[in-house]
Amino acid sequence: MLMLIPDKSALIWRQLIMGEREYRFKLVPASMMLSRLIRSVQSDNSEANIQRCIDELHHFFNHYHVVLSKDIQILFGSQTEHSPVATTTSASLLQQRNFSSHAPLR
Fold first, then answer.
1. CA-to-CA distance for 72 and 50, rounded, in angstroms?
2. N or C, where is the chain less crowded by C-beta within 10 Å?
C-alpha cells in the first residue's frame, strides 16, 4: 500500500497549523501535537515559526504514517501534490520473510 502525503508546500499544512481547517485525529498524540502547534502559531505568527511548525507536523506524518494511515486518507485523499511514503502491509512482511499465511507456527 502506498500512502500519499502532500509536500510541505501544500496549503493544507498551513491551514492545519493556523487552525483554519479543523480535524479530529484518530490518534490522540497527533491531536495533541496539532493543538500544541496551533498554540505556538497563535503566540508567534512569524513566517519562520509557521514554517517550523509545518516542518514538525510534516515530519510527524512521515514518521508515523503507518498509524496515521486513516487520517492521511481522510485529510489528503484528494490532494494533488504528494510525496509518496511506502507502507508495509502484513502480507508483504510475510512475503519478505518467506512465510505463508497458512504455514504452521513452530
1. 21
2. C
Q: pLDDT tens across 61-84, in order?
A: 999 999 998 988 888 875 534 444
The Cα 26–Cα 23 span in angstroms is: 10
Q: How far apart are CA 92 and CA 98, in angstroms?
A: 10
Query: So where are the chain's domains?
Result: 2-96
Q: Check if the beta carbon of residue 57 is closer than 8 Å to that of residue 13.
A: yes
pTM, 2 dp: 0.69
3-state class (DSSP) for residue 104? coil
Asked if 80 contacts 34 with a C-beta cutoff of 8 angstroms, the reply is no
